[in-house]
């Protein structure tokens, strides 16, 4: 329970959310770390608490259905949490794309290099970017 309290305290400092949203988000983050996947059903199993897994899963569904994350706030929080004390760090910028069926999805990603790993702190979908091919 100690970890959840530290995480909630950190979230309360930077985010102006309702207590229930912060509680859900903190438990979701701990569940994400525990199961190492973004599957909501798996995260629900890894979340701390006494509620049934089906109740936790439904709580996650409601969280994402009715609440929008401000990714600028998330990026600032992550930066302060992990990188503010470093004298030097590397900022990585990437644009990548995937296909969802026949539709191209373009993503802009901002990361910080730390310990040989790129840690994403901000991402957004790029609208209307069309790459032309000359064959």
Provide an overview of this structure.
This protein is of the alpha+beta class. The protein has 2 domains: 67 residues, no CATH class; 47 residues, no CATH class. Helix content is 47%, strand content 24%. It is built from 5 helices and 3 strands, in the order H-H-H-H-H-E-E-E. Strands 1-2-3 form a 3-stranded antiparallel beta sheet. It is globular.
Taken in chain order, the helices and strands follow as HHHHHEEE
Task: Indicate the structural class.
Answer: alpha+beta
Q: What is the strand tally?
A: 3
Distance between the termini: 59 Å
Supply the number of structural domains: 2
Q: Give the strand order of the largest sheet, numbering strands 1, 2, ... along the chain.
A: 1-2-3
Rg result: 17 Å
The amount of helix comes to 40-55%
Low-pLDDT segments, ≥5 res = none
Q: Indicate the proportion of strand residues.
A: 15-25%
Number of helices: 5
Mean pLDDT: 84
In short:
The protein is of the alpha+beta class. The protein is built from 5 helices and 3 strands.
Indicate the topology:
Elements: H1 2-14, H2 19-35, H3 40-46, H4 53-66, H5 71-82, E1 90-100, E2 103-114, E3 117-126
Antiparallel strand pairs: 1-2, 2-3
Helix pairs in contact: 1-2, 2-3, 3-4
């Amino acid at each position: 329970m100690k970890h959840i309290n530290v995480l909630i305290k950190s979230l309360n400092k930077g985010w102006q959310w309702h207590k229930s949203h912060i509680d859900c988000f903190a438990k979701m983050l701990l569940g994400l770390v525990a199961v190492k996947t973004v599957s909501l059903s798996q995260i629900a199993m890894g979340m701390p608490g006494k509620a049934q897994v089906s109740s936790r899963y439904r709580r996650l569904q409601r969280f994402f259905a009715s609440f929008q994350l401000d990714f600028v706030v998330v990026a600032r929080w992550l930066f302060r949490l992990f990188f503010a004390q470093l004298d030097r760090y590397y900022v990585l910028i990437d644009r990548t794309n995937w296909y969802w069926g026949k539709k191209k999805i373009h993503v802009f990603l901002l990361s910080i290099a730390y310990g040989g790993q790129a840690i994403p702190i901000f991402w957004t979908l790029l609208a209307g970017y069309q790459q032309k091919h000359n064959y």
